[in-house]
Amino acid sequence: MRPPILLATALALLACAPDRRDTANATTAALLPVPRPPTPSDSACPRDGRWRPCSLEDRINKAGLAFKPAGDSARVPYLAVPGLRYRLGKSATLVALFYADSTAGAANTAPLDPLRLTPRGDSLGAWPSVPSEVIRSANLIAVLLDASETQAERVRLALQAGAPVVIPPR
Fold first, then answer.
1. Beta bridge partners of 119
2. Burial code of 102-141, b = ≥16 C-beta within 10 A, e = fewer?
3. Residue 146 pLDDT greater than 90, yes or no
4. Residue 12 falls inside a structural domain
5. From residue 78, how far is each of 28, 57, 82, 125, 167 by CA, in Å?
6. What whole-number distance in Å separates Cα of residue 134 and Cα of residue 132?
7. CA 12 to CA 4: how far, in whole Å?
8. What are phi and psi of 135, to 5 degrees?
9. CA atoms within 13 A on the CB side of 146
10. Has residue 27 got a pLDDT over 60?
11. Are 83 and 97 in contact (CB under 8 A)?
12. Is 131 among the domain residues?
């Protein structure tokens, strides 16, 4: 009489035991990377390889700089696009010029002094002070005014790391 009881007990234990395939799938699922939750800037800012105000603000903020829009634009007579003005720290200003592409930006600024973004021979041009730095990255030209060396370096490193990454559609 013992063999049927042992057989019944063994079958009952097997029926209650978790399926090895389910355990393997759960283990595999636990090892897969968890997708990063979207950040607020992901949905609002297209990632097509071009600089836009939202991608500039995101990049500079992630570089750890106090950075906020000044709420106005800067119109320079010899530049084809208006610049957006930003406050950087307590006293510096960044004027961002967003062109359709890098070729348009290069063509518009070719006759200008590349270090000051002013007409050649004119150190000030239409800027309120001599530019501390002019940074070019893809379709963006950023002009820093009254920036410290540290601010200029951090902005330069953040922008010259490249334009926002292109994310292909799914």
1. 112
2. beebeebbeebbeebbbeeeeeebebeeebbbbbbbbbbb
3. yes
4. no
5. 60, 25, 10, 9, 34
6. 7
7. 12
8. -120, 130
9. 11
10. no
11. yes
12. yes
pLDDT confidence of residue 85: 97
Q: Is residue 103 part of a domain?
A: yes
Band of residue 133 on the pLDDT scale cut at 50, 70, 90: very high
Residue type (1 letter), 101? D
Structural domain total, the chain? 1
Indicate whether 30 pLDDT > 60: no
Mean pLDDT of the chain: 83
Say how far apart CA 164 and CA 81 lie, in whole Å: 21
**Three-state DSSP class for residue 14:** helix
Give the range of the structural domain holding residue 136, as residue numbers without chain letter. 48-160
Which residue type, as a one-letter code, is found at position 59? R
Of 53, 57, 79, nearest to 68 by C-alpha is 57
pTM attached to this predicted model: 0.72
170 domain-assigned: no
